[in-house]
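Hi V.,

Quick status before I head out on leave. The structure for the redesign project is tokenized and pasted below; the design run finished overnight.
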């Protein structure tokens, strides 16, 4: 694992009421003004976005309000994971508060899987339901929406999953993915969307929507929502509500799980409450969860909470068994680990736990992983988990011609296909992910946010750091580190002795206790080492103390931390009406990157002529993200100026004519010597396109390759026509590659500037 040291943060105005380390960490997160800091730390200082900012929500409110007024029966259709369970309950409770006639349904995973299923939908309609409201599902439910419409029933879809090419024909579709990427509501989960809909429906009495915040926090945290803006604020407020929740079902869950309500934080959701609720949906029927959350009968609450404890025990056992079986398969066939994606299947692995196992293997081996349940005579049903940088749902979508259904997020997906198509799917998906991996750095790494002496780690510091919570995607726990420590003792802990408690000591004799989760089969650190860890204030047996959790360690002889460069300043001139004038006004020392026909127009440099400089103007849109990344690494600019002159996809004939002209020049003036890299720069294309183009010329008998060394070749004119069919296939491949280049350049012209440079 590579250790990266965070860059020095920008200066922040002194905030005397905050610990200096907290101020430092806030600045690292880009919070450099007192207003931004206060809005981040204090949920009362944040200004929530209006629910009506969600596209489709006003129409949904109008239709639901009309249904309530007309006393129409409303059916809420949810999903069986925690996000879906809480979203369902939020809407059911909100509609009941309005006096609506409401029923709900959550699919049974082992029978129906995700989505809206026509037989059960038909039953709801036959029961008299005149309006269907979905939550955490439905964005791809075209058949269900059409079926309901044909039966004279309207559908309101509230979801947060990735958008399909076209939306279902519903009377309203609410999805935060329809908003700009940086919108405050953009990272809401299904429960978050349900809450904003409930907030609008209950606008006349805000206290009633506030009563739903506890469930909203459960759903957002359990679904790993990115905790920024609205999502963070809802979790902050929701955690406060969870600590004093009047819901008897949650109170009984706390009791059985031995949670002290006053100290509850997002980790209790992620590691205690969430798994118990998910176990119900994975192994049983999640519909009773609405009763668990809403019952006022303490006996019934305890019975339902106890059922979840039993399901959770089953889940733990099954997950452990399937994980062990999967690891055994990998040991028996190590070649499975050489592929870009770990893909395993078995007819007896329960579908309810394959996602958990996929997550464990993806984390352990740092590879996207798919685990399939393949019962005889049925389709293969799988759960996928990914790693940062690999959008597994997008990769799966490339091969939807093989699939019965699929859906998910960049980091997780579900899919189903006929079992006989598994080998072809495995082959094609590995090719897709291998191509994705070429464009990113997938080496696992950690960023060290600050270095501390062991003596500086106090309860006061731990409590000060809690101001940054809740932690999760978009707001990671600060990773701190101490140099030159050694192991003083180690003890196994946990019900199955699966964890360790370490005591480490520094050169001055200061000691700290560190927890190392799931470390029973891992080697202990030896000699003197640097230690990376997180710090939290935790309650144990009624007392608040400091909890250090081991993240990584390395021997002190290893390479020192890499220093990340400060963020690049971006000046966006892509839409400027006078780009040449802007180019002429750039500061001295700014290099202009221009290739192909653009190079002479602006007197620019190609990608191989560039050198380190304080400023870089990108005039010709890069042909691909890998080329852009290489140029940024080479120039290391402090400021990048973006230009994007209009262009259209280059025809294959035009590209080949330009390449042929360059080859002819090389034959006449340079004794046939060419270089792939130089030709790529001269044509403003990727090297792979140039290679394919030269190969086509060889197959067509136009040139011969006399010698080749690395990226350099010596060519000669003429030759034999080797493979006309192969040449035709190459022509098609060149067309496809040029289309890819054009697509990326189109993206470069319209994408948010910050996303282009990472």
């Amino acid at each position: 694992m590579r250790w990266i040291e965070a860059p020095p943060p920008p200066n922040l105005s002194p905030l005397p009421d905050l610990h200096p380390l907290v101020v430092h960490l806030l600045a690292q997160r880009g919070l450099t003004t007192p207003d931004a800091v206060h809005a981040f730390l204090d949920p009362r200082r944040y200004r929530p976005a209006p629910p009506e900012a969600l596209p489709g929500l006003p129409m949904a409110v109008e239709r639901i309000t009309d249904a309530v007024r007309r006393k129409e029966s409303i059916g809420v259709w949810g999903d069986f994971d925690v996000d879906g369970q809480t979203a369902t309950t939020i809407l059911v409770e909100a509609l009941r508060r309005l006096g609506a006639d409401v029923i709900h349904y959550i699919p049974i995973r082992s029978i129906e899987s995700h989505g809206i299923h026509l037989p059960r939908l038909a039953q709801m309609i036959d029961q008299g339901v005149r309006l269907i409201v979905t939550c955490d599902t439905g964005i791809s439910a075209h058949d269900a929406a059409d079926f309901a419409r044909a039966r004279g029933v309207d559908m309101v879809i509230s979801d947060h999953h990735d958008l399909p090419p076209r939306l279902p024909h519903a009377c309203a579709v609410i999805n935060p993915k329809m908003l700009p990427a940086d919108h405050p509501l953009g990272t809401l989960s299904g429960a978050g969307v349900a809450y904003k809909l409930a907030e609008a429906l209950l606008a006349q009495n805000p206290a009633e929507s506030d009563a739903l915040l506890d469930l909203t926090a459960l759903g957002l945290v359990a679904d790993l929502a990115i905790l920024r803006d609205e999502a963070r604020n809802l979790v902050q407020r929701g955690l406060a509500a969870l600590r004093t929740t009047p819901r008897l079902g949650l109170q009984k869950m706390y009791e059985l799980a031995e949670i002290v309500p006053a100290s509850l934080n997002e980790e209790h959701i992620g590691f205690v409450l969430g798994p118990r609720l998910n176990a119900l949906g994975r192994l049983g029927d999640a519909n009773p969860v609405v009763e668990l959350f809403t019952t006022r009968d303490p006996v019934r609450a305890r019975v339902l909470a106890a059922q979840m404890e039993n399901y959770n025990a089953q889940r733990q056992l099954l997950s452990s068994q399937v994980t062990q079986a999967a690891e055994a398969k990998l040991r028996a066939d190590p070649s499975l680990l050489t592929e870009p994606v770990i893909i395993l299947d078995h007819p007896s692995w329960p579908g309810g736990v394959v996602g958990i196992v996929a997550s464990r293997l993806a984390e352990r081996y740092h590879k996207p992983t798919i685990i399939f349940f393949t019962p005889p005579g049925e389709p293969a049903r799988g759960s996928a988990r990914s790693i940062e940088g690999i959008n597994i749902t997008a990769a799966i979508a490339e091969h939807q011609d093989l699939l019965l259904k699929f859906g998910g997020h960049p980091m997780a997906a579900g899919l189903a296909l006929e079992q006989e198509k598994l080998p072809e799917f495995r082959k094609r998906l590995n090719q897709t992910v291998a191509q994705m991996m070429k464009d990113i750095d997938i080496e696992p790494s950690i960023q060290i946010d600050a270095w501390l002496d062991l003596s500086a780690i106090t309860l006061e510091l731990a409590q000060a750091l809690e101001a940054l919570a809740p932690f999760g995607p978009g707001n990671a726990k600060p990773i701190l580190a101490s140099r030159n420590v050694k192991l003083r003792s180690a003890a196994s802990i946990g019900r199955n002795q699966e964890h360790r408690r370490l005591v480490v000591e520094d050169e001055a004799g200061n000691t700290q206790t560190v927890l190392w989760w799931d470390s029973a089969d891992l080697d202990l650190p030896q000699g003197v080492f640097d230690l990376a860890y997180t710090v939290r204030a935790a309650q144990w047996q009624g007392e608040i103390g400091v909890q250090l959790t081991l993240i990584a360690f390395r021997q002190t002889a290893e390479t020192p931390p890499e220093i990340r460069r400060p963020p690049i300043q971006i000046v966006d001139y892509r839409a400027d009406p006078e780009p040449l004038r802007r180019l002429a006004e750039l500061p001295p020392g700014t290099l202009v990157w221009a290739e192909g026909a653009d190079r002479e127009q602006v007197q620019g440099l190609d990608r191989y002529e560039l050198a380190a400089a304080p400023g870089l103007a990108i005039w010709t849109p890069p042909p691909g993200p890998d080329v852009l990344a290489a140029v940024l690494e080479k120039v290391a600019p402090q400021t990048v100026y973006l230009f994007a002159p209009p262009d259209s996809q280059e025809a294959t004939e035009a590209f080949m004519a330009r390449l042929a002209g360059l080859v002819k020049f090389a034959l006449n003036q340079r004794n046939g010597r060419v270089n792939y890299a130089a030709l790529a720069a001269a044509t403003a294309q990727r090297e792979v396109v140039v290679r394919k183009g030269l190969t086509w010329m060889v197959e067509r008998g136009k040139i011969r390759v006399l010698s080749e060394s690395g990226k350099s070749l010596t060519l000669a004119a003429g030759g034999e026509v080797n493979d006309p069919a192969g040449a035709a296939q190459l022509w098609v491949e060149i067309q496809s590659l040029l289309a890819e280049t054009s697509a990326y350049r189109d993206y470069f012209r319209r994408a948010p500037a910050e996303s282009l440079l990472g």
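Above is the designed sequence. The first helix runs from residue 20 to 28.

G. will cover questions while I'm gone.

Best,
W.
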